[in-house]
Give the backbone structure.
Amino acid sequence: MTRTDSWSGRLVLMAAHCAGMVDLVALPVWVCTLIAHYGFDPQQAGALATLFLAGAVAASLVCAPRFNRLPGRPVAALGFGAAALAFFALSFTGDFATMALLHALGGAAAGSALSVTHGTIGRSAGPHRLFALVGLALGVFAVAFLGLTPRLVAATGGASLFKVFGSLMLVAAVLAAWAFPGPDAQPPVRETALSRLPAPVWFGIVGVSLMALNQAMLFSFVERIGVDRGFELASVHGVLLALGLVNLLPAPLAAWLETRVPARHAMRTGPLLQALIALVVTHSLAFGPYAVATALFAAVMIFTHTFAFGVLARLDPSGRAVAATPAMLMLGSAIGPVLGGTLVKASGYAALGYVAAGIAALGIFCFSRLHASPRLLGATA
């Protein structure tokens, strides 16, 4: 069986992470395409993205507790394959009800595959560094996606976005069928049963979910904010490309700082930076502050989550907690687009910044509780 420390195993995990986490990169293009090319209002567009993410959450909640009993390669290959079919089908319809069903089915399929992907990373010898590696791959993917896809959609129409998504899922399915790796180590016997997770794990799960909520709530609308503020569309697309370039940095930086910065400090700082950036994006009428803040926004989530992933892997060696990564990320992400759309529709873009600040305060509280466990040893001291 392929191992996570082999080049083929790492290649497959990188591709699977990019496909399963496509929302982290694509949400602004996704929501903007649904509004501009399909005629949906912000609330409807946010709801469709939410249905994809809700499907992923439901699948992850089913798969994560059973991670140690699931065959990783078939689940990953079939999950990404089914998601590819859903996205290709989306490229042939503009009916809201049909698109809603396909978004939900595609999310459930991708969420299943992503659960076994993250569980496998968590059961590797170095989960923090391996998660940083797949995070770097996501950053490289973001540069290509944000550099090419908005222009492709503008030139050829909204259906091309779903063809891009379908192609990405298909590549991940083929690679998973070829060489999806198995976990490197068997968990301790006491961890294999469906026993209760340590209490600090739940604070970590909630903290990550709250950051994901903020990420999705604002990120879904950063392109529309720029356009509605009167910034040139080409300039807004340039900011998204810059965002992709910036996203190359946080994962390797988190890997380098693993033993140099206490995880609790990194994790508490993340929500605070999210809130500050959200307030700048939603309140700035000048292009410069908007551009800088938007370019940095996703990097904060990637950096902070790399530390959180490593801590949760140490707290729960069975891999079940990190196998629930799609659930903890996408539970927040699922609420984010529709919540953001509702706030924008009711109170305008400024409301996004104020709500983001309140959510960030809750996230800081949760992460402050995560390190309170003797099983972390010196990891977060």
